[in-house]
Design goal:
The structure holds two protein chains of two kinds. By secondary structure, chain A is an all-alpha fold. Chain A is built from five helices and no strands. Chain A has two domains: 72 residues; 45 residues. Chain B has one domain: PhyR, sigma-like (SL) domain (Butyryl-CoA Dehydrogenase, subunit A, domain 3). The radius of gyration of chain B is 16 Å and the shape is globular. Classes of the chains: A mainly alpha, B mainly alpha.
Chain lengths: 119, 159
């Protein structure tokens, strides 16, 4: 075993002296630094965009609240819009609305079965 | 850690690191240097997390070993014939070249952990404690790997 140990200690692998090794390392590190700088830039840009969006949202909220207080809207006047009219109509005539729907369904059923029989 | 500080630390460690990887790559200098570059970039990216709890070289060697293991897992590399590998070491006498050829051929047959333990202990003169930190295994296991490695080498090296 002593011979093996002596052999290993005497025959350490020799590395070629390569002056470009550290240059290449430095080049790769520069690339890493470039990526780091870009990521930092994007992060700070995102942070600024977030702060601006928050500020605009806050200002818009304050403005709308102030307008709502300064110019109150008569709720009753806007309540009877188009959708409200449709809703009221449907509620009033619902028993008669079901009749045409049922008629259409039966008609379609008959028409389709007639077509199937003829084929 | 800035680039200049990192480079100054690496300057002292680059030769042992490349030699360690050269042994792991069975004398394939190009592959060893490629892994060394990868390891240095990884170390540079993670240099903020180096707390100084271990020696810089131990930390660097651990990263390099992990890079080597990652590369081995990704794809089985093309094996450089040992006859070619020994020619990477220039200026050797034929006797010395023959010994290197024998060494790399024998190292090629060792399992990765045994090879790493042998390379660190005999080529880099690292202590068992340091090897244990680099390879991430208990000191008893390092001693076992060394013992097995020696036995395996004895079968493949003719003295």
């Amino acid at each position: 075993m002593k011979e093996i140990e002596a052999f290993l200690k005497e025959n350490k692998p020799l590395v070629k002296d390569d002056p470009t090794f550290l240059q290449e390392t430095r080049r790769r590190m520069d690339q890493v630094d470039g990526i780091k700088a870009e990521v930092d830039h994007q992060r700070s840009y995102g942070r600024i965009a977030l702060i601006v969006a928050l500020a605009i949202g806050l200002a818009a909220g304050v403005l709308i609240t102030a307008l709502a207080y300064l110019y109150p809207v008569d709720v009753q006047s806007v309540r009877h819009g188009l959708w409200e009219s449709v809703r009221v109509f449907a509620q009033t005539w619902r028993q008669y609305l079901l009749l045409p729907i049922a008629a259409i369904a039966i008609g379609l059923g008959v028409a389709l079965s007639w077509k199937t029989v003829r084929q | 850690m800035n680039q200049e500080r990192f480079i100054s630390l690496v300057r002292a460690e680059q030769e042992p690191l490349r030699r360690f990887l050269l042994a792991l790559c069975n004398g394939d200098g190009a592959r060893a240097d490629d892994i060394a570059q990868d390891a240095l970039v990884r170390a540079y990216v993670a240099s903020g997390s180096f707390l100084g709890l271990s020696k810089f070289s131990t930390w660097l060697f651990r990263i390099a070993y992990n890079c080597y293991i990652d590369q081995c897992r990704k794809a089985r590399p093309e094996q450089v014939p040992v006859e070619e590998a020994q020619s990477l070491v220039s200026g050797d006498t034929s006797d010395r070249a023959f010994r290197y050829q024998q060494l790399y051929q024998a190292l090629e047959k060792l399992p990765e952990k045994e090879k790493a333990a042998i390379a660190l202990f005999y080529f880099e003169d690292r202590s068992i404690k340091e090897i244990s930190a680099i390879l991430g295994m208990p000191q008893g296991t390092v001693k076992y790997q060394l013992s097995m490695g020696r036995q395996h080498l004895k079968q493949h090296i003719q003295l």
